[in-house]
Amino acid sequence: DGGLQIAVDACLSASKPHHFMSLTKDGHSAIFSTTGNPDCHVILRGGKKPNYDQTSIDEAAEVIGRSGQPVRMMVDCSHANSGKDHLQQEVVGRLLAEQIASGDNRIIGLMLESNLVAGRQNVEADKELVYGQSITDACMAWENSEPLLRELAAAVRQRRKNSAAA
To answer: pTM for this structure?
Structure first.
C-alpha cells in the first residue's frame, strides 16, 4: 500500500547483529551469526498513490529519520510510481533527476524496468518470442532508457558540483 513503517522497521532490524539456527550446505544444523548491514535503504515503489514527488520524499525522510537511521532512499520508477505504465517511467525518472540535480542527497538510486524492446509479451506455444522484450513486467525500450540514464548521470554530477561548492 506504499506504507513506509514496515520498510523502515526491516532496515532497522537488518542493520543489527542476529544469531539464528539454520542448516549448513551439508545439511547439518548450526547457529549462524550476522554482524548486521549498516548500508540499508528504503525503496519507494508507490502504493495507493505515487511516492516519488518532493513532498513524498520529504515525508519518507521524516519517517526514516525518526528511526535514527541514515536517510537513504531508492525510488522505483515503475510499478505504482508509474501507474504500471512503462512509458511513464521516463516522466518519473526526469522528475527525480530534477530533485537530484537540485542537491537531494537522500535519493541514492533509481530502479527502471528496461529492456531492448519496449513493452512485454506472453509466452505462447508455437509463437516465437521477440528477442529483447520482457515476458514479465512491461519495460521501457533501450532507446528511451539510454538518454534517461545520461540525464540522471548529469543530475548526479550537478549534485556533486553543488555539494563541493557548499
So the answer is: 0.89
